[in-house]
Amino acid sequence: MTYDLIQIAYLLATALFIFALHWMNDPKTARRGVFSGVAAMLIAVLATWARPDVVRWWWVLIPILLAIGPGIWLSLVPLTAVPQRTALSHAFGGLAAGLVGTAKYFYWFTHEPERLTAFRMIAIIAEVILGYLTFTGSLVAAGKLQEIRWIPQRPWVYRGQNIVNLSAFALAVLLGVVLIFAPHQGSVSIVLFSLIILLSLNFGWMLVMPIGGADMPTVISILNSYAGLSAVAMGFVLDNKLLITAGALDGSSGLILSIIMCRAMNRSFTNVLFGAFGQVQKVVEEAEKKTVKTATPQDAAQILEQANRVVIIPGYGMAVAQAQHRVRELYDQLTRRGVDVKFAIHPVAGRMPGHMNVLLAEAEIPYDRLVEMDEINPEMPQADVALVIGANDVVNPAARTDKTSPIYGMPIIDADKAHTVFAIKRSMNPGFAGIENALYYADNTLMIFGDAKAVVGELVKALSGHGSA
After folding, report:
1. Contact 366, 376 (CB under 8 A)
2. Whole-number CA gyration radius for the chain
3. What pTM did the predictor assign?
4. Order of all β-strands in the sheet with 385-389
5. Which has the least CB within 10 A, 186, 374, 417, 440?
6. CA distance 208 to 276
7. Dihedrals φ, ψ of 399, to 5°?
8. If you ran DSSP here, which 8-state letter would residue 151 be given?
9. By C-alpha distance, which of 390, 396, 414, 412 is closest to 311?
10. Annotated catalytic sites, by residue?
């Protein structure tokens, strides 16, 4: 009877996980999706706790109690830090899978060696390799996103790096194959298993270090996929159908999202993982002679209040400056004047998929004002003003015109086709892709240098003054 109830609970949790993913597709039902996922996880934990073979229940309770503090802390980080929080979550998931696989191997090795069948060893090896490489890879990704000083933001590369990285991974797989066919060879098996763990941990950070900030959205979704696949393997090890299903949902959704991200950048998986994209390009002498035209927030306010159509293009600079609430104030000022304001959202703007959507939603900007890249581009020639707030590579027209550019062929938002372009930026430093932005030198572009939050605040202040006058 207990077994049947547990399986029914697992089935219910599985359905809730599926509904959670479905409801997250639409902002109107996203909150329902979150509650569904939380309910599914709670049911899964309680059902597992009720299993007859779980006799030392405090081993479940103690980790839960220890996790409450870090969990609350992670839930309170600002939305601008959601990418690195997501990376940390993947790290914890990968570590959990790796530790469970390690514990199961050593327990069965010492107490029930007959259970180390070829199938279970395949699952354990997959779980350990994917789990540990996700752990260290996600930690490095979080460090890059947090801009920790001793972790380079640009790709960290050296000659023959891909060969070294792939060799380490291949050696871990090879040792795993040896263990699959000979899992009971005494101390030799222990040494081989320990080497697999070390190689997996090492491969994880080596995989992410050569990847630049421009590819962080894709890296996060790929690591999400790895964490899901490690959970699938863990499900086979523990003979837990819910883990297999939930891990498959997690892994497949991460993979699909990664494919979407790669298509949005017109690049392949291999280029993202091994292309060292984002190294600062050398600037030729002709480019150094280029000059940009600048404007003040007051200048921009005068043009904005005369506009009929304004397209705001947010990027990571807006997230860093936490300017989303100032942007909402600007939106309110313009709409009061009858200006049609839309927000152009690029799929890879920011540091994680949907980063801009989340920030603008926090500022309570109407979701119907957020327009995807493919839908907004046909409207850009009719826009009186394109206001670029901290976006860089996703509006670089070199992606359309310069065949020598590293981002050539990448779909971009056609900001340069607007009648007037205002680009808010701290400096002329290159973006994540490490290349110069041709938009800044266009005849119809005016640069406004400064912190995005401060500049947009000045814009709002100037518009308010014009309105009262």
Report:
1. no
2. 25
3. 0.77
4. 370-372, 340-345, 309-314, 385-389, 420-425, 445-449
5. 186
6. 10
7. -65, -25
8. S
9. 414
10. 393
